[in-house]
Amino acid sequence: MTPPPSLPEHPAEFCPVYHAIGILQEKWVLHIIRVLLQQEMGFNELARAVGGCNSATLTQRLEHLERLGIVSKRLEDGPTRLGRSVYALTPAGRELQVVIDAIGNWALAHLPASNPSLSSTDAPR
């Protein structure tokens, strides 16, 4: 049986799958999208919902997703001088619901039930 041809590390031509994986594989991106699929949120609320992501990284990821047209940001006037930033998914971002659902369905079918005592390196392969 011959092995499948190997994929180049960096495709010479534009490959939409390669490009999308490059964006979605960044740490915290899918967590941010998953949370924002539930509802729009302010920065601090989003930080708590994502859990474990430091503010600088969260800011960087949100700015990148905003530049890509996946997340939108609006400023709400608050009772104090400073307004509040509210983040939501754009229509393109909401289309990622099918990706999140597919990952969830795959995980339910192929991964053991969650066990917090197992680290990712301890999980069966």
Entry summary:
The chain has 125 residues and is mainly α.
The domain count comes to: 1
Count of extended strands = 3
Question: What's the alpha carbon Rg, rounded to whole Å?
Answer: 18 Å
Mean pLDDT: 85
Q: Strand percentage, roughly?
A: 5-15%
List keywords for this structure.
125 residues, mainly alpha, Arc Repressor Mutant, subunit A, 3-stranded antiparallel beta sheet, disordered C terminus
Give a verbal description of the structure.
- There is one protein chain.
- This protein is mostly helical and 125 residues long.
- The chain has one domain (16-110): Winged helix-like DNA-binding domain superfamily/Winged helix DNA-binding domain (Arc Repressor Mutant, subunit A, Orthogonal Bundle), CATH 1.10.10.
- The protein is 46% helix and 11% strand.
- The protein contains six helices and three strands.
- The chain has helices at residues 16-24, 29-38, 43-50, 55-67, 91-94, 97-110; strands at 41-42, 71-76, 84-89.
- The protein has a three-stranded antiparallel β-sheet.
- A hairpin with a 7-residue loop joins strand 2 and strand 3.
- The protein is globular.
- The two termini are 23 Å apart.
- Residues 119-125 have low confidence and may be disordered.
In terms of topology, how is this protein built?
Layout: H1 16-24, H2 29-38, E1 41-42, H3 43-50, H4 55-67, E2 71-76, E3 84-89, H5 91-94, H6 97-110
